[in-house]
Design goal:
Blueprint lengths: L7 H10 L7 E2 L8 H4 L7 E6 L1 H4 L26 H9 L4 E4 L11 H10 L3 E5 L16 H18 L4 E4 L6 H7 L3 H8 L5 H4 L5 H19 L5 E3 L3 H4 L17 H19 L7
Parallel strand pairs: 2-3, 2-4, 4-5, 5-6
Antiparallel strand pairs: 1-3
Length: 285
């Protein structure tokens, strides 16, 4: 999103004074960039990640559990190139991170995460939520676009109001129907999916692929419109929705969550939208 937030000096001053009151885990060091590159971005000393199991890195480390070190947002795994690691490489300073995401949440259940983020007052907040909103035994159980928009409006209003000097990055919801198409001919995936995973709308034998894509497009249209209302909000313009995963990007544990490779791809997409907004030369921040 190409909008002015405030002057560089004003935001830099606020960021310098801000301190995160939550956990202060430090991201694993990555090679420092040159002095010239380190001057390109505004300081991001603290960040928080909001969302669901995708942001928690579930199944990304080869085990059927959350693995935050492989999270696209706050992860520290070598070779991941998470948002936190890219910030360190670009600025020379590793941000303190707090991954507030929770498994299974829908957008209507984000209140606790939003409140926690506001309390911690991080310099950057990343948000990716909506995957569970299209999951269910049938399309009747998918969150309506109207309900999704209402919940997103409430959450974003709270974030933008409670964190007026923070950068809020909103990711589009990925097109889970592409996962259905990708794994339809994979016998191992089909065997796992046949046991059920609570998301028949995506992995079921008769998954309503077109309906899922259409619903997610509605979610993303709402996110785009809502984010444009706030000067400190950055949306990826549907880049994650447009992403076409490969088999390497999918975890072989459940053939539903993403692998470390998939987490890397999500981070790269997010950085493509976020980096220009953080650039001191962009005139935006």
């Amino acid at each position: 999103m190409k909008r002015l937030i405030s002057t560089v000096a004003a935001l830099a001053a606020v960021v310098a004074l801000g301190a995160c009151s939550g956990p202060t885990d430090t991201v694993e060091p990555t090679p420092s960039a040159s002095a010239e590159a380190q001057a390109d971005l505004i300081p991001i000393e603290t960040m928080a990640a909001l969302g669901d199991s995708m942001t928690l890195g579930v199944n990304a480390c080869g085990e059927p559990t959350p693995c935050t070190k492989a999270s696209w947002s706050t992860g520290s795994e070598s070779g991941l190139d998470s948002i936190a690691q890219r910030i360190e490489e670009a600025t020379g300073t590793a941000p303190s991170v707090d991954n507030l995401a929770k498994t299974g949440v829908k957008i209507s259940q984000m209140g606790g995460q939003v409140s926690a983020a506001i309390k911690e007052a991080p310099d950057l907040v990343t948000v990716l939520v909506g995957n569970n909103d299209v999951c269910g035994s049938s399309t009747d159980e998918m969150t309506s676009v109207e309900a999704y928009r209402a919940a997103a409006a409430s959450g974003l209003k709270a974030l933008a109001g409670g964190l007026p000097s923070s950068v809020i990055y909103i990711s589009s919801v990925p097109d889970l129907a592409k996962l259905t198409d990708l794994m339809r001919s994979d016998s191992a995936a089909q065997a796992v999916w046949a046991r059920g995973n609570g998301c028949a709308t995506v992995t079921g034998a008769d998954a309503p692929v077109s309906a899922v894509s259409e619903r997610i497009e509605g979610y993303n249209a709402a996110l785009s419109e809502l984010c444009s209302q706030y000067s400190n909000c950055v949306f990826d313009d549907g880049a994650l929705f447009d992403f076409q995963p490969t088999a390497e990007d999918i975890s072989t544990i459940d053939y539903f969550h993403v692998s470390k490779s998939g987490q890397h791809e999500i981070a790269a997409i997010a950085w493509g939208a976020l980096e220009p907004a953080l650039a001191t030369s962009s005139g935006r921040l």
